[in-house]
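Data deposition worksheet. Section B asks for the primary sequence of the deposited chain exactly as it was used as input, without tags or linkers unless they were present during the calculation. Section C holds the resulting structure in token form. Section D is free text for depositor observations; keep each observation to a single sentence. Incomplete worksheets are returned to the depositor.
Section A, Depositor: J.P.
Section B:
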Amino acid sequence: MQLGMFMMPLHPPEKDRTQCFEEDIELVTRADELGFTEIWVGQHHTVAWEPIPSNDLFIANVLPRTKNVRLGTGVSILPQHHPVNVAVRLAFLDHLSRGRLNCGFGQGGVATDWGLFDLPDPQTQGLMTVEAIDMILKLWQTNAPFNFEGDFWHIKIEHRDAKDGMGELLKPYQKPHPPLAMSVIRGDSKAARMSGQRGYIPISTNLVPANTLADHWQTYCAGSEEAGQSSPDRSIWRVSRSIYIGESTTEAWEFVLNSAFARSYDYLIKVLKAANMLHIVKHNLDVSDNEVTPEYMMKHDLIIGDVDECIRQLQDTWEVTGGFGTLLMIAHDWDDKAKWIRSMELLANEVVPMLPVI
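Section C:
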């Protein structure tokens, strides 16, 4: 199994922002040294727990500090950006990385971000996301003159001077473009179905129980079948999990319950409530909203324990889902740097090597 990382990131609001960003940079460089194959970086504007507003800038900063790890936007929130801006910035970043870039697209799930940009209802944002992806792909593959008119954007260049390069947009380094991914949250996710139809990388969220992860893959395969494609290879599937590995299971639980780890899930529960999405974390829909606490989520959706216990839990996840290609470790705040570095080392060196391979 491959090991990667998904960095929202998660930092307590009161923590110094500069320190947060410096720790995130160090986390990426250590992951590269430990052989992580990929890192996806999130983007939000109005939540202090997730303070990176421009994931492409962060990736540009860590590119020269790393050697092998692939870096991806996880995700570029398309309703909050003009498609031309996304297309040219990611193409530029692909050149700067010499092809170490992955591109994740999505519509976002933070209600205060929606209000900040005066966006319409989530269903309309979903339509905007699909149109934006199509626009970006056209911009990467078409030379001017062109005229792309959609329901939300009208993009055109009427004249092109090939000799002087007037009217030309930058195309990506990777041909025809970097690998594309979409984040998948709900069990019957439209993003999962669309990813399957188009052969994009599915990235399953860390916020759902393992049985919902299994639904993600079924929906992805249904989309692939609808598009007349051959059965997809499970190695393309990325599954995100929050993971903490301690020297003992007792020590691990004591730490996560009394640290920024638990606080981060209290925050995520509030975000999900605001977006009317709290049901996605439940292993059984009969569970009341009041029962959904950080401890509840740790029990049902997270990987916590010593090396042997975490191997067992991840093997159980593998069996329930039917298998996947890459495990994405969720990045958490370094409120105890030594403990988190040790956990990451144990994950890379002792846990992941014991897991099945597609």
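Section D:
Residues 122-141 form the longest helix (20 residues).
The mean pLDDT is 96.
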